[in-house]
Amino acid sequence: MALPAWNQALGKWQVSDAQQQVASAIRNTQVKAQSSSANWQFSIYETTSGEVQWSSHPQTGMPTNWTRVGNSAIDIDLADTTLDSKSGAYYIRFDYKGNLASRTRTLTLTHRSFPGIKRCLIMSTILGKMRLATEQENPSSAGRYCH
Predict the structure, then answer these.
(1) Helix, strand, or coil here: 16?
(2) Beta strands in 40-117 (DSSP E)
(3) Model-wide pTM > 0.85
(4) Tens digits of per-residue pLDDT, 87-143?
(5) To which H or E segment does residue 118 belong?
(6) How many CA atoms lie within 13 A of 139 on its CB side?
(7) How far apart are CA 136 and CA 147, in angstroms?
(8) b/e string for 97-121 if b means 16 or more Cβ within 10 A?
């Protein structure tokens, strides 16, 4: 009986760890934009095999180096993710000053075996302020559970 509870606790840890990895990558992208005085982009997508990967790259270039997020159990929650997307990848853009150059939006990660476990990253201001949040019992006015 304790095994399902242990698996769910492990799932929460895995999604939280993935959230922290992504938050760090987004912050590093913002710092690269500031330090290079160039527009940078954080891109994230789910491969056809279900693996979530991210890349930090100049906005004018195509991503060449992709890094896996967490483990293969991590998914992008499409219903709760509101980032802009292009060619199957979601993105966050920073201008040369490190300010948010794309709309303020949310990226939500979940666990394939426990879809009720949600961890989100909310880009909440044009200055690039990011807030981390978890799933809630009640949806927001926009109908999202991670807010």
Answers:
(1) helix
(2) 40-46, 52-58, 67-68, 74-76, 84-86, 89-94, 106-111
(3) yes
(4) 899 999 999 999 999 887 899 999 999 999 999 999 988 888 899 998 888 888 877
(5) strand 118-123
(6) 6
(7) 7
(8) ebebbbeebbbbbbbeebeebbbbb
State the alpha helices, DSSP H only, in the chain. Answer: 2-36
Token couple for 59: 């906005």
CA distances from 55 to 137, 143, 145 (A): 32, 29, 26
Neighbours of 90 (CB within 10 A): 21
Strand 74-76, strand 84-86: pairing: unpaired
How open is the CA angle 139-23-88, to the nearest 5 degrees? 75
Q: How far is CA 72 from the centre of its chain?
A: 15
Residue where the block lists tokens 């938050």? 23
Q: How far apart are CA 134 and CA 108, in angstroms?
A: 9
**Spatial distance between the Cα atoms of 59 and 65, rounded to a whole number of angstroms:** 14
CA dist 45 and 135 (Å) reads 21
Residue 23: count other Cβ atoms within 10 Å of its Cβ: 16
Q: Which amino acid is at 123?
A: M
Q: Which amino acid is at 92?
A: I
